[in-house]
Design brief:
Length: about 400
Amino acid sequence: MANGYRPEIVQRAFVDFIGSRLHPFWSLTTPKLRLLARYEMSDDLIALQFETNQAFRQQIFKGTDDWKGGQYLDLRVFIDGVYHQRSYSIVGLANQPLWWQDDAVITETAKSKRHAVTIAIKPQGLVSNYLTKQLPLFSIVDTSMPLGDFTLAQAKTSLDHRGPDNQKLNPLLFVAGGSGITPMLGLITQALANGHQVALLHYNRTELPQLQHQWQQLSDIHPTFSYHFIHTDNPTTYLADERYLSAEGLLSLNLPLADTQIFACGSQALSAGLYKAVNEISVLQNIQLRDNIIVENFGNALTDFDGDGNQLLDNALQTESHTVYLRSRQRQFDSDTTLLVAAENASIRLAYGCRQGICQLCRCNKMSGVVKNIQTGKISSDGYESIQTCINIAMTDVVLDI
Ligand code: FES
């Protein structure tokens, strides 16, 4: 019976159950992390290094692929009777030594056998503060496997349609604001190894000497890499004399922008500034740049669950408030989070199923207004189109055909 059904004599789930009773880190199926060390990357950015368990390693390393630069992990932690789930960027690649590793307290096992993964956290909010300040060393947390499409694969597919030149490697521009720099390390290392020309713009409120040293070393090795660190309180670092991202700043980089893929990770304001700048350049040069932008938004995993696994309302995913009008029902509500959650906060029931962008049950037609898809980062046009309310937030006032 070469291809037939083969019952497992001992179910993996049963082995897992027994194993986890013997040791909570042990599992054949559930990826888990054990906290090894913390490292202060800057005043407001802490790196956490974790040892990975057997299940994580088996799933991630069963190919030769490891994780991709730019991916993130969803960590699930239990605080005061509530499960909280948050997304955090993975810093670097599986085989990439990080600049502080010699100083950190890392077990030899984790160091030598690729058993470690590092994430970066800005200590703000309940979960981030807990992870960076309270979680004792060697504690165990549940994790997803690496997730996310904010990877170089997107650069390839989005530029492939451009005709006979599609084999050439297009330049890449990475734009980061504050802690948005964390996914860039793995991405940039991969991009340079693949032979891309790479430019990095990093806007931050404080100096980051160690990180800047890293970028300098990288540019010494790769002449095709240039980086610009903009300390927002130090005018001598500004691009084209502008404190924030501007069309003049982008043009001063002398990149062939029409062929440049732009990866951005940072605040809503940074994304808005980037879109405004490329719109200005598009009009000025009569080229279409908007589709060259990929924005990281960490899926929509900012979700909490109570001890029984019920999903709590997502209060972490908030943005500037706008008004949403339901044309047929003649109702309106203010929205500073996903359209679905905002409607429910205003006691208005909208159709939904999975609440994760999968089932399409929440899909409806937008008559006007701009929305942003929090899974892909895409900003919509201002006109009529079909959208999912569970994964879109309002960037302007919006009218829905509901
Ligand atoms: S509720 Fe399932 S896609 Fe929105």
